[in-house]
Design goal:
The complex is a heterodimer of chains A (332) and B (290).
Chain A (H helix, E strand, L loop, with lengths): L3 E12 L2 E12 L3 E5 L6 H8 L7 E6 L2 E2 L4 H7 E4 L11 H11 L4 H14 L15 H12 L6 E5 L7 H18 L2 E6 L2 H7 L2 E6 L2 E6 L1 H7 L3 E7 L2 H9 L4 E7 L2 E6 L2 H14 L4 E7 L3 H9 L10 H15 L1
Chain B lengths: L14 H13 L2 H21 L2 H5 L13 H16 L4 H19 L1 H11 L1 H6 L5 H29 L10 H26 L5 H17 L15 H6 L1 H14 L5 H27 L2
Helix pairs in contact in B: 1-8, 2-5, 2-8, 5-8, 5-9, 5-12, 6-9, 8-9, 8-13, 9-12, 9-13, 12-13
The chains are: A alpha/beta (332), B mainly alpha (290).
Chain lengths: 332, 290
């Protein structure tokens, strides 16, 4: 059995009358990338803030690295690294000074701190800008510095709240390269929230879909895709009517439909079922001119569980900032 | 309220890191540093010199019509009036001593702004995830405000001396030490107060409003410009609550030799600093993690 890094037990947060996070339960295993996927205001950031002891849960609790976030917040803080959603480096200080400040806050001796800062800045390729004030950094550079800053204490779990928000596609890919490196080289557990489906799909070992404060589904991207009804097999034949009849009688077929360019078959484990389908069709004298198997996209998975497309909610970075500002005001 | 559990960090963990962060920003921005030096110089140089009551009473050519009172007598009367009112005939020095507390008040007040900015810029979110005790986040800021206040007060003192502030004869280094101790306590209490008020504030506009609401009343209900005994009866109790009254008392007592109850002054300032910083720490436990 794999060791648990995080366990949330009925974790709940209320802000006044509204419930931001509603009795959620989940487990994160050591050494995995756990993606928290959901639209804005779904409760992703609130969850991360409770797990990192910035917010106190209204109900329930979570165990992080074996420590209770309510009873042992200082121990939790000591054992984790956090990259918050906002840029949190001090703009008036240089990258290096920010690193050293973080080291001071974790009580790391100066000599060790200098070594680690050097190594980490090297890793995120910021050595050349270490002596520059952070206010001169670009968005991607700042995000990389944030990651380096949260690694100074060599945490066992790294929390990242929307690490790629507002960045261009290239920079987003680069940030993910660093995150993958941390997982592979340091065997770090990574808890990351995102509202980009492709990211969750590509990089997440397991994903939780959250909406309106509730977890709707948890599993690996593959499991989630299977859960919503398997793969899609598309066929072009010389006799579609007969083909539909034949295919419908095969065991394990979920659904067969006629489309304007052939027939569509929904089936679990499409790759294993396809030869069987082909065989029965040939046996019945039907010629198949074209066949394709497609896995459901994360988009479909998301749609299935939340009843809406995530893209509709995809706001520009500017709208996001305005949104976050309002949220922050609403909370105080 | 959640009590912080025992951990392997000392009580002071992170304090100096946080204080030095703010000090670094302060001394690394020469323009802001320069501006903050100009303000006290203006106050002491222009206000202090222009508001020179001494020149009204002495060395003038007034006389009472019909009576030819010798000038010497008039000057002597003027000096006696000043001495009776202010405890010294040197109003400039009286005011200069008061300016020390004044500059400490204005510098401490800024401390609240820094936490509002830290919150808005996200720096606070980051610090909250590190193993620094909540209370130390506040005390770190208090510490940096206290250090800045004392540096500013020193500049005011030097400028005042250059402009003609005179001490009582026989002044010794211990007197200065005492003045600094009093200013330290007041800065500690005042910056705790303004930080406390800023704990839940998210916009710098509201914090500015709070500061403006409190700064001049604090200044004018103290004995910075005039002694408490010349105040109307309803203002006196307010002046006796105002910590500036006590730090002014110490500064004037030790630097100018104006009689004051030093024991009471220090007791009040000590309690002021202790109580407000304690409340600040307790509230920061409560409000920094919501």
């Amino acid at each position: 059995m794999r060791n648990l890094a995080i366990k949330a037990i009925n974790l709940t947060k209320r802000f006044g009358k509204s419930v931001a996070v509603d009795h959620i339960n989940f487990e994160v295993y050591e050494g995995e990338i756990f993606g928290f996927l959901g639209p804005n205001g779904a409760g992703k950031s609130t969850t991360i803030k409770m797990l990192t002891t910035v917010l106190t849960p209204s109900e329930g609790t979570a165990i992080v690295n074996g420590y209770d976030v309510i009873k042992q917040p200082a121990h939790v803080r000591q054992s984790i690294g956090v990259v918050p959603q906002e840029y949190t480096a001090d703009e008036d200080l240089t990258g290096w000074e920010n690193m050293m400040m973080m080291a001071g806050l974790y009580g790391i001796p100066k000599k060790v701190a200098e070594e680690r800062s050097k190594e980490l800045l090297e890793m995120v390729e910021l050595t050349y800008a270490a002596k520059r004030k952070v206010e001169t950094y670009s968005g991607g550079m700042r995000r990389r510095l944030e990651i380096a800053m949260s690694l100074i204490s060599r945490p066992r779990i790294l929390f990242l709240d929307e690490p790629t928000l507002g960045l261009d596609a290239q920079t987003r890919a680069a940030i993910w390269q660093y995150i993958m490196k941390l997982k592979e080289e340091y065997k770090m557990t990574i808890f990351v929230t995102t509202h980009y489906l492709e990211e969750a799909d590509m990089y997440g070992d397991r994903i939780a879909i959250i909406d309106k404060g509730k977890i709707l589904a948890i599993g690996s991207p593959k499991e989630l895709k299977e859960k919503i009804g398997g793969d899609l097999v598309s066929l072009q034949t010389n006799n579609d009517e007969l083909a539909i009849k034949v295919v419908s009688s095969i065991d394990g077929i979920l659904n067969v439909k006629k489309a304007n360019d052939g027939i569509r078959i929904k089936v679990r484990n499409g790759e294993e079922k396809a030869p069987e389908i082909l065989e029965s069709l040939v046996k019945n004298g039907i010629k198949v001119s074209r066949m394709s198997i497609t896995e459901p996209t994360m988009d479909e998975v998301y749609m299935e569980f939340t009843g809406k497309r995530l893209r509709d909610e995809d706001a520009s970075a500017q709208e996001m900032f305005a949104f976050r500002r309002t949220m922050r005001r609403a909370r105080t | 309220m959640i009590e912080e559990e025992k951990n392997n960090y000392s009580v002071f963990h992170g304090l100096w890191t946080l204080a030095s962060r703010e000090l670094k920003k302060w001394y690394k921005a020469p323009v802001i540093l320069l501006l903050s030096l100009i303000q006290p110089i203006f106050w002491i140089g222009i206000f202090g010199k222009a508001m020179n009551l001494g020149s009204i009473f002495t060395g003038t050519s007034y006389n009472i019509p019909g009576l030819t009172i010798p000038k010497q007598v008039l000057d002597q009367i003027g000096l006696e009036i000043l001495k009776q009112t202010f405890g010294t005939s040197d109003y400039f020095s009286f005011l200069a001593a008061g300016m020390l507390s004044f500059i400490v008040l204005f510098t401490s007040m800024q401390s609240g702004m820094s936490i509002v900015w830290d919150r808005r810029l996200g720096v606070l979110d980051r610090i909250l995830t590190t193993p620094v005790a909540r209370g130390n986040i506040i005390i770190g800021k208090v510490l940096s405000a206290v250090i800045r206040s004392l540096v500013q007060a020193t500049i005011v003192l030097v400028v005042a001396i250059l402009l003609g502030m005179t001490f009582y004869p026989g002044i010794n280094p211990l007197d200065f030490l005492g003045v600094y101790a009093a200013l330290f306590l007041m800065a500690f209490g005042l910056s705790s107060l303004f930080l406390m008020l800023a704990l839940r504030v998210t916009s710098w506009e509201s914090q500015m409003a709070i500061m403006n609401l409190l700064n001049l009343p604090l200044l004018f209900t103290s004995n910075a410009f005039y002694p408490v005994k010349s105040m109307p009866y309803w203002l006196k109790p307010v002046a006796y609550i105002n910590p500036l009254t006590y730090s002014n008392g110490v500064a004037r007592g030790l630097l100018l030799g104006i009689s004051t109850n030093l024991g009471l002054d220090f007791l009040y300032l000590g309690l002021f600093a202790l109580i407000l910083s304690t409340i600040g720490i307790v509230l920061s436990w409560k409000y920094l993690s919501k």
